[in-house]
Automatic annotation (TrEMBL):
This is CoA transferase subunit A. Keywords: Transferase. It holds the Pfam family CoA_trans. SMART domains: CoA_trans. Belongs to the 3-oxoacid CoA-transferase subunit A family. The lineage of its organism: Bacteria, Bacillati, Actinomycetota, Actinomycetes, Micrococcales. Gene3D superfamilies: Glutaconate Coenzyme A-transferase. The keyword Acyltransferase does not apply. InterPro entries: 3-oxoacid_CoA-transf_A, CoA_trans_fam_I, CoA_transf_BS, NagB/RpiA_transferase-like. One of its GO terms (molecular function) is CoA-transferase activity. It comes from Kytococcus schroeteri.
Amino acid sequence: MDKVVASAREAIEGLENGMRVAVGGFGLCGIPQVLIEEVHAAGTAELEVVSNNCGVDGWGLGVLLDAGRLRRVIASYVGENKEFARQYLEGELELELTPQGTLAEKLRAAGTGLAAFWTRTGVGTLVAEGGMPWRYDADGSVAVESPAKETREFTMLDETHEYVLEESLPCHFALVRAAKGDRHGNLVFNKSARNFNPVAAMAGRVTVAEVEELVEPGEIDPDEVDLPGVFVQRVLALSPERAADKRIEKRTLTETPQEA
């Protein structure tokens, strides 16, 4: 039951080129930076990443992007990374833009054993009808576009609406970060740093959690557990220095009124 590993390299053992990886975080909040850096150091490439976004230039998943290690990204927002825009528009990277709630449910559904689900989100748009540019050619023409998805009408409470079928997103690996974890893999997330981490963890065949504070089993009140250890296979305890190394995506300052 002791899932603690001795090093970041041991934590990502088995992660191979071409695999699909779910990565927790939102912007730079709650991202598993130590594990991302270890994937970079290991030289793993051609990855398909499922994450809300792709970090920023030089931090978060931007580290792997800058090194050309990503083949495909499934995300809901990618607007903070200039290198991402360049690679996508020049045909070096494939992108499947997905509505944010749908993306979260795709990951959660994978963790609960569901192959697919029906949702109204995206009906009447390119999400359902197909034609979204997934990959461009170097000349700017569309090389790969999204296919049309199955739609169907359902009647609930005397109201009939059209729904689109969305497939779940099981992943070979999942990399997440938690504020606290025990040796059994039970995790506690800190406020908004929870974000996509629980659903990303649920989707992984092998889920690795880097934790800022490692405690012994029984020290976490069961009512405080945000993600049960059944979804986590490996736990990496961070040093105090690595746990404190957090970046702010956008810093906004308010000027102090000058005294008269």
